[in-house]
Design goal:
The protein has 320 residues and is an alpha/beta fold. 36% of the residues lie in helices and 18% in strands. It has a nine-stranded mixed sheet, sandwiched between helices. Bound molecules: ligand AGV and calcium ion (CA).
């Protein structure tokens, strides 16, 4: 999907280094209609150093030179360490370590300042894809208000509207989704701006769990670096159902697929607000006076899995 002049859509990607985020990065690198201008790593659902390293190795693997930056701003509610260490596992995957890596360096600026710079320098309105918390973007809006007009659309994985949240923490009532819970004030700040927001809450992302059949489909293409990486990252997600009671889903990759195939989901405008304090912090509420958000409400799951598989495997299986 290019615009009427055939221009590619410019995207800044703010991700937080979980397997799902790294799969999203891989998808983005394969989309012909996307001009990926920068990748930020938010230190939320990851250890930032290995997540940055894995990010560099993925870009290297697919032969892409894209600027990166690592985040330093903290969230109020830290992610479980047991999840954050997945970045160490991803960074150690053999497919990402086929050669001595040139030490990849992030830009010297921390991600929030770098994001502001990228936004200010963007030659045309730019899309911000966020598959982690919105902390960096909120900082940009606070400190450089004029960047608001540079943003064409914020595409965000987060929230839970008419379904339960996925936060299971003491002193919390379970109504929040983690990307919002990590830094509820950040979403509030983005809601208070005028940027168009397209949001992918758990209501739809829960419908695309990582299944064994789906992971095994990548095994049929074993031997091609991109499908090996995709299958390995998906395999890292197993055990989630057993340890948390909830399956690992393609939360971020479904959100990312919107940039290539915008009609895999259907959307409704919902007026939203976010609770920032107390036992429901991070919960999104629908209220008549709330801020309009374009929310994904239904997904064609089969079409999504097919899109994901087609994008990250070669035309034909290497062996039958
Ligand atoms: O709430 C979904 C978000 C997505 O951006 N993340 C994971 C995806 O990257 C947090 C999360 C929720 N449940 C999790 C998460 C789990 N069981 N393991 C790791 N991360
Ligand atoms: Ca994420």
């Amino acid at each position: 999907m290019t615009d009427t002049l055939g221009r590619r859509r410019q995207v800044l990607f703010d991700q937080d280094g979980a397997p799902d985020d790294l799969l999203s990065l891989l998808l983005l690198t394969q989309y012909d209609n996307i001009d990926l201008r920068g990748v930020a790593v938010t230190p939320a659902d990851c250890l930032p150093r290995p997540a940055l390293s894995a990010t560099h190795k993925i870009l290297d693997l697919v032969g892409r030179d894209v600027p990166t930056a690592v985040g330093v701003l903290p969230g109020r509610n830290p992610f479980p360490l047991a999840w954050r260490i997945d970045a160490l596992r991803a960074d150690a995957l053999p497919v990402l370590n086929q050669k001595d890596q040139r030490a990849g360096h992030a830009d010297a600026l921390p991600a929030h300042e770098q994001l502001a710079t990228w936004l200010m320098r963007a030659p045309a309105p730019i899309t911000v894809l966020a598959t982690g918390p919105l902390t960096n973007l909120a900082w940009c809006l606070d400190h450089h208000p004029h960047v608001e007009s540079r943003i064409e659309e914020v595409v965000f994985m987060g929230g839970a509207l008419d379904v339960a949240g996925n936060v299971r923490q003491p002193d919390h009532d379970g109504t929040a989704e983690w990307n919002v819970f990590w830094d509820p004030d950040a979403l509030k700040r983005v809601f208070d701006s005028s940027v168009p927001i397209t949001m992918f809450p758990l209501d739809v992302t829960n419908r695309v769990p990582v299944t064994l059949d789906f992971v095994r489909a990548f095994g049929r293409h074993y031997g091609w670096h991109v499908s090996d990486l995709a299958g390995s990252l998906l395999a890292l997600t197993f055990g989630t159902l057993e340890t948390t009671g909830l399956p690992y889903c393609c939360w971020d990759s479904l959100t990312t697929s919107y940039l290539a195939e915008p009609d895999i989901c259907t959307f409704e405008t919902v007026r939203c607000d976010v609770i920032t304090r107390g036992e429901s912090q991070g919960r999104i509420v629908q209220t008549p006076g709330g801020r309009p958000v374009k929310c994904a409400r239904a997904v064609d799951a089969d079409r999504f899995y097919q899109h994901f598989l087609n994008t990250l495997t070669p035309g034909e299986p290497l062996s039958s």
